[in-house]
Amino acid sequence: MKTIANLQKQDLSAAYLYTHAAFDPQYAQTLGVDLNKLLVFDTSSIDAVAVCKALLESRQLDLLVIDSIAGLSSFDSALNSDDSYSAFLTKMLRQLVPLLSKSNTCMLCTNQTRMKEQLDTWIETTPSSKALRYYTAIRLCLSRRGTIKKDDYIVGLKSTLTIERNRFAPLHNPIDFDLFLSSN
Residues 128, 153: one domain? Predict the structure, then answer.
């Protein structure tokens, strides 16, 4: 949301596609987002790919946010395995990447990690498998290491940011930082 707010300050446009009731308009306004200038779509009732294509073909968009890319699978009953979802995502990205390039639009996707048992060990994986990894220019992994408490209230999170892929610069060491939550 902060990225969208900063974009709007520069008089640029953004669209926000969300799943699982992830959008909180009051929180977005608290962070400085002008809701009158933001295109918001709930993907539970629409074809997200068609909306993305239409937005990109208009060439009026500077940032397209999909929150979360993993949530797109829950609305298609045919996507009942990681393999079929990876194939769906590969097909979607194959259609969107040329449009992103032509429209000079940046796409920001959020994704969740899950634990999967493999050969008697648990590994961290994403629902998008390798599809999203292949198409991304920059891939970041933000993980929570703990909480920050003040008087038995959680006021922040101890976090680690790891740059897993960067086509534009060399990779750096993981960064540890404290992320304080808004009092609003």
Answer: no
The residue type of 53 is: K
**Residue 178 host element (H or E):** strand 175-180
Q: Which helix (H) or strand (E) segment is 73 a member of?
A: none
Q: Give SS3 for 162.
A: strand
Per-residue pLDDT of the chain (184 residues; tens, 9 = 90+): 999 999 999 999 999 999 877 789 998 998 899 999 999 998 877 788 889 999 999 999 999 999 877 766 544 545 555 567 778 888 888 899 999 999 999 999 888 777 778 788 887 777 666 777 788 889 888 888 999 999 999 999 999 999 988 999 988 899 999 988 876 5
Quote the domain boundaries for residue 64.
Answer: 2-136
My answer on whether 38 and 55 are in the same domain is yes
Tally of domains within the chain: 2
Give me the CATH number covering residue 46. Answer: 3.40.50.300
Q: Is the peptide bond before 68 cis (omega within 30 degrees of 0)?
A: yes
Query: What is the Cβ-side half-sphere exposure of residue 104, based on CA atoms within 13 angstroms?
Result: 3
Q: Longest C-alpha distance within the chain, in Å?
A: 52
84 and 58 part of one domain: yes
Q: How far apart are alpha carbons 20 and 65 in whole angstroms?
A: 15
Q: Hey, what amino acid is at 161?
A: L
**Distance between terminal CA atoms of the chain?**
15
